[in-house]
Amino acid sequence: MPVTLIAGGVGGARMALALHEALPPGELTVIGNVGDDCEHWGLSISPDLDTVLYTLTGRIDPINGWGVAEDTHNLMETAISLGEEDWFILGDKDLALHVARTRRLRAGEALSAITADVATRWGCATKLLPATNDRQRTWIATDTEELPFQEWLVHRRAADTVTGVRFEGVPEAQPAPGVLEAIASADRIVLAPSNPFVSLDPILAVDGVRAAVCARRADTVAVSPVIAGKAIKGPIVGMLESMGHRADAIGVARYLAPLAGTYVLDAQDADLAADLAELQMAALCVPTLMADPAVRQGLAAAVLA
Ligand code: GDP
Ligand code: CA
User: Does the beta carbon of 11 sit less than 6 angstroms from any atom of ligand 1?
Assistant: First the structure.
């Protein structure tokens, strides 16, 4: 059965792997976030797309959840010795992908075509589509200023309180080829346990994407990125609080209720299932910590049932 996943970085990639392992080859399409994309040392970097690609092709660094396993940092160390910035960590193997992508973008190829070609070369049967080929950039509003996403997340370690999120390039950004079709034609649409504000929202903000998912609400399943009031990693709980939402799995459910008719709570949050009824969301309760392969399998089976 054709399935379409809407995914950010680490939480998105883990869900992508769960579905990729569960489905026959070629039945999964992943629509990935490009709001985190940035330019560093003149290179075009797509961190969330790469996290999905590295995870699905067995390259991912299992400790960080991003970057390439056992990568070296020769280029970065040498660049730092020349006075270059040291806060955005780029391994040598990772850099090779950025070099190739940057060259091809400059030669006029679309990001979607480059991403598809890399996936094919690396033997990945799952289709990976950037939400848009157009330039889209996430900006984070704090109490005092607005920061580019990576400046806020990586350089300042998400220490500044978030008061709002803005997507540069919207509403002009158009869906990449295949994005709307993948949503309209899938038997099931899955919203990954990704950060709703900075991973799912930039995808949904691309022209026509939110409406396309809303039109499929009955077939859409969202998975909670929050377990027992905590993130597995990342700034989501602080963002829920500072932007006026309930800081638990139900806070995310309320935010996603217009999009998804079914919501997966972690088994630890079974007591919250009753709160989903008023949101007109069906509840599924299963373990969702996907580092464990058996949990991945169980979660994929629940989402696809
Ligand atoms: P990022 O772009 O790397 O920040 O990743 P995403 O936005 O895709 O995902 C971040 C969210 O994934 C965090 O809020 C985590 O709590 C959540 N997450 C990571 N791994 C898991 C997991 O195994 N299970 C669940 N339920 N959530 C996860
Ligand atoms: Ca991200």
Answer: yes
pLDDT tens-place string over residues 31-59: 999 999 999 999 999 999 999 999 999 99
Spell out the residues 6+ positions from residue 74 whose beta carbon is closer than 8 angstroms to its own. 92
Ligand 2 is an ion; its neighbours by CB within 5 Å are 8-9, 36, 48
Q: Give residue 25's identity as a one-letter amino acid code.
A: P
- Ligand sitting nearest the alpha carbon of 54: 1
Ligand nearest to the CA of 138: 2
The CATH code belonging to domain 3-304 is 3.40.50.10680
pTM for the whole structure: 0.98
Give pLDDT tens digits for 83-140. 999 999 999 999 999 999 999 999 999 999 999 999 999 999 999 999 999 999 999 9
Tell me if 51 sits within 8 A of 130, measured CB to CB. no
Give residue limits of the domains in the chain. Answer: 3-304
